[in-house]
Amino acid sequence: PGAPLDRVSQAALAQSAAGGSWAGPYGGIHIGYGNGSGDDVETTGQAPANVSNVVSGARPGGVSVDEDGFVGGVALGYNLQSGNIVYGVEADIDYTDIEDSSTRTTTNAAGAALVNTFRNDLEYLGTLRARLGAVVNGGNTLVYATGGLAWGNIESSVSMSAPSPATGVTQFRGSSDNTETGYVLGAGIEQAIDSKLRMTASYMYYDLGHDTVNVALVPTAVPLGGGTGYNSKFETTGHLFRVGVGYKF
Question: What does the pLDDT read at residue 205?
Answer without folding.
Answer: 97
